[in-house]
Amino acid sequence: MGICISELLIVKNVQYFALEIFLLQILVLFCISKKVNVKITTYMQNFKSGTYINQGYYKSFQPTNINKKWVLDDMELIHLLSKADRQLGRLDMYSEHIPDIDLFISMHVLKEATQSSKIEGTQTNMEEALLDKKDVSHENRDDWEEVQNYISAMHNAIEMLGKLPFSSRLIRETHKTLLQGVRGEHKLPGVFRTSQNWIGGASIDDAVFIPPVHTSINELMGDLENFAHNTEVYFPDLLKIAIIHYQFETIHPFLDGNGRVGRLLITLYLVDKDILKKPILYLSDFFERNKTLYYDNLMKARTHDNIVQWLKFFLVGVIETAKKGVETFDAILKLKQNSELNIQTLGTRANNAQKIIQYLFKHPMLDVDKIVEITEVSKRTAYHLINDLEELGILKEITGGKRDKLFTFDSYLNLFK
């Protein structure tokens, strides 16, 4: 008797996904108890990552195509997938019910930009990322610009999703934005590489990993794109994007910026597939805190054909990040409520204070000139508003100087640390 699990997973509506997982668990247990021959049409425990190709004085890694049937045959993975789906569903619910959620999303993007860039060695923190360019020291300006580019790349890519599908073209456009005007601007922004690159090591001779030869990139990226849009064989989208991220990092199609683009693709895919209605899940903080495991699990999938461990790690990241996201949104709502309640004590200045609060939830750093712009009051009145908000514990001065003072919404910033 033969059963092909992938053919039974035909319900594509996300709201029924938890039921699918439950039924799949029952099916696998049935197969085990009855010793049914489950046809594994493509890998998982039998996954083959690829082969090494002799290029003369080095060997490049040629990954196998991913646009095939993938069958779940690991109960622990199925259990984690069910948990991740539930937590992601809870997080997505917030995007429908939280007023002015777009204000809060900008801070999530800012945190993602700083953490994803930090994985690559960029040292800009959230406070520095909030500064205007003129306020950033010259030695830190390149790092600052890389973070700003990441923010722009995310916003532009989300906007492009309304016009372009999740595709190589979208990926190239996103990469072009990411590398504009920064250290990687001479490394073909928006263009797949035309030469060999490598990961780790001082040169290709002592490289930790050598991605596939550049002549195969278009074919490999085409396969990745086809897998993303394959509707003939259903496979859970959370596992799909985990495999896509692994394959993208393995292909390493650009000369620079592959890690940042690859992590950005996770959110783009989930939004494109309507798993998330808003871009509110960002895994770079989890990856940065578990950087060694992140790189080790990607590498073990290549060297030991262990894709299951990478998928488990990825799902744990989704679970933890989604839980933390819900907690953060709860804390934001309480802080917003308390802040709005506190400013009612300001009498006639409460209306202008409310305008400042609204701005701070989107950009929690400002100076007196910004307050003048937001409220259309005189500079003298703006200083009175600053004093009021400092006394209420909403604003905190961070520069320590007498001129050009900057103020942060410290209690809000702390929610993202």
Question: Which series of helices and strands comes N to C?
Answer: EHHEEEHHHHHHHHHHHHEHHEEH
Strand neighbour order, sheet with most strands: 5-7-6
Please report the first level of CATH classification, the CATH class of the largest domain. Mainly Alpha
Based on secondary structure, the structural category is mainly alpha
Q: Average pLDDT value?
A: 87
The proportion of residues forming helix, as a percent range, comes to: 55-70%
Rg: 24 Å
Assembly annotation: single chain
Main sheet attributes: strand count, strand direction, barrel closure: 3 strands, antiparallel
What is the domain total for the residues? Answer: 2
Descriptive overview:
The structure is a single chain. This protein folds into 2 domains: 50-325, Fido-like domain (Fic-like fold, Orthogonal Bundle), CATH 1.10.3290.10; 331-416, Winged helix-like DNA-binding domain superfamily/Winged helix DNA-binding domain (Arc Repressor Mutant, subunit A). The model is unreliable at 1-17 and 27-40 (pLDDT under 50). By secondary structure, it is mostly helical. The chain has helices at residues 5-8, 17-33, 75-97, 101-119, 126-129, 141-160, 168-179, 217-228, 237-251, 258-272, 284-289, 291-303, 307-342, 350-360, 368-375, 379-391, 410-413, and strands at 2-3, 37-38, 50-54, 59-63, 365-366, 396-397, 407-408. It has a 3-stranded antiparallel sheet. Strands 1-2 form a two-stranded parallel ribbon. Strands 3-4 form a two-stranded antiparallel ribbon. Helices cover 56% and strands 5% of the residues. Helix 8 (217-228) packs antiparallel against helix 9 (237-251) and helix 15 (368-375) crosses helix 16 (379-391). The protein has 17 helices and 7 strands.
